[in-house]
Amino acid sequence: MDLRNVLNTTYIAARVGGKELRRWRADNIDLKSENKADGTLVTAADRAASAAITSYIKGRDPSAFILDEEREALHTLARPESMWVIDPLDGTHVFANGGDDFCTMVAYVQQGIPVIGAIYFPMIDLTVFGGKRVGAWVKPSETMASPLISRRVQ
User: Fold this and answer.
1) 69 is an annotated ligand-binding site residue
2) Which of 12, 16, 104, 111 has the least CB density, counted as fewest CB within 10 Å?
3) Are 8 and 130 in contact (CB under 8 A)?
């Protein structure tokens, strides 16, 4: 998969997961929360967003290895040279308590180095995405993406 396709897949996958979370919030679905082995909270919404992101990535890259925060069994497996890393719901406690300050995160990693990443804030419909050699972008709602301007700090 070339870098532009990876960027597009990363961007859309983050939004797919976030839209699933927005649906859970709008429909007021029972979260069925529990604690993972490490003691952190996980909800049915985390798992639903994870499934949506995974399904989207696998549809574009069927052989993809996806390291998912919510699927602990994958954390101990040997990892390939290239993989996707996802956090389908960053801010689970906030989400579970009715707050809006949460996001989905998707990254593409090669040889242990993040190459492309996207963060989607579903409640304000804002996506920040980019990577080395493609630039950094911010996309509020359904408008055109705008490049983020950076300056070297002296």
Assistant:
1) yes
2) 111
3) no
Is the per-residue pLDDT at 141 higher than 70?
no
**Does residue 135 fall inside a structural domain?**
yes
Q: Is 30 labelled as part of a ligand binding site?
A: no
Cα separation, 136 vs 33, in Å, equals 35
Q: What is the pLDDT of residue 30?
A: 63
Residue 90 known to bind ligand: yes
* Confidence category of residue 146, pLDDT binned at 50, 70, 90: low
Which residue range is the domain that position 41 belongs to? 3-147
CA–CA dist 85, 107 (Å, integer): 5
Q: Say whether 89 counts as a known binding-site residue.
A: yes
The CATH number for 122's domain is: 3.30.540.10
**Number of domain units in the chain:** 1
| Helices vs. strands in the chain: H and E counts, helices first | 3, 9
Residue 152 counted as domain residue: no
> Biggest alpha carbon distance in the chain?
51
Q: How far apart are CA 10 and CA 127, in angstroms?
A: 11
